[in-house]
């Protein structure tokens, strides 16, 4: 079950507070900086990462993600360029505007359950 957390405290941590990141996927949890009132490209982006994690397994996904990021950082010497060229990110950014429906069920304050994934193939 995928859970989505809005206004998460993670984005108030000192090293992340002033970054441009609006969401992060940790296993089956999606943490968002702000509340979204509809299925936004950002939420869809994070749901694509959920599908990638399901497809590759969490260990392979995160080790490959980190490995690709470090490799690209050595090549480009730029954090943003390296991040945007990670193959998992390239796929997520390419698909985040596909408008297949997702529904969210409110569980409690700022916590939602994804009840339909946009990427079921
Ligand atoms: Zn991403």
What does this entry look like structurally?
With 121 residues, this protein is of the alpha+beta class. It has one domain (3-116). 41% of the residues lie in helices and 17% in strands. The protein is built from 4 helices and 5 strands. It has helices at 41-56, 58-76, 79-84, 87-95, and strands at residues 3-5, 23-26, 29-32, 104-108, 111-114. It has a 5-stranded mixed β-sheet with strand order 2-3-1-5-4, with helices on one face. Helix 1 (41-56) crosses helix 2 (58-76) and helix 1 crosses helix 4. The protein starts with a strand and ends in a 7-residue tail after the last strand. 19% of the residues are buried. Residues 45, 49, 89, 92 line the site of zinc ion (ZN).
Q: TL;DR?
A:
By secondary structure, the chain is of the alpha+beta class. Helices cover 41% and strands 17% of the residues.
Helices and strands in order:
Layout: E1 3-5, E2 23-26, E3 29-32, H1 41-56, H2 58-76, H3 79-84, H4 87-95, E4 104-108, E5 111-114
Parallel strand pairs: 1-3
Antiparallel strand pairs: 1-5, 2-3, 4-5
Unreliable residue runs = none
Q: What integer is the average pLDDT?
A: 90
- Number of DSSP-assigned strands: 5
Order of helices and strands: EEEHHHHEE
Distance N to C terminus: 17 Å
Q: How many domain regions?
A: 1
The biggest beta sheet is recorded as:
5 strands, mixed
Apparent shape: globular
Question: Which strand-content bin applies to the residues?
Answer: 15-25%
What class, by secondary structure content? alpha+beta
* Rg, Å, rounded: 14 Å
The small-molecule ligands in this entry are: zinc ion
């Amino acid at each position: 079950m995928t859970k989505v957390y809005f206004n998460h405290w993670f984005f108030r941590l000192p090293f992340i507070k002033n970054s441009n990141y609006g969401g992060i996927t940790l296993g089956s949890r999606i943490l968002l900086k702000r509340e979204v009132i509809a299925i936004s490209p950002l939420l869809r982006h994070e749901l694509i990462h959920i599908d990638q994690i399901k497809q590759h397994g969490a260990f392979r996904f995160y080790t490959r993600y980190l490995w690709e990021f470090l490799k690209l950082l050595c090549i480009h010497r730029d954090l943003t360029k390296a991040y945007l060229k990670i193959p998992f990110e390239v796929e997520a950014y390419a698909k985040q505007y596909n408008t297949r429906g997702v529904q969210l069920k409110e569980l409690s304050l700022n916590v939602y359950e994804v009840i339909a994934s946009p990427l079921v193939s």
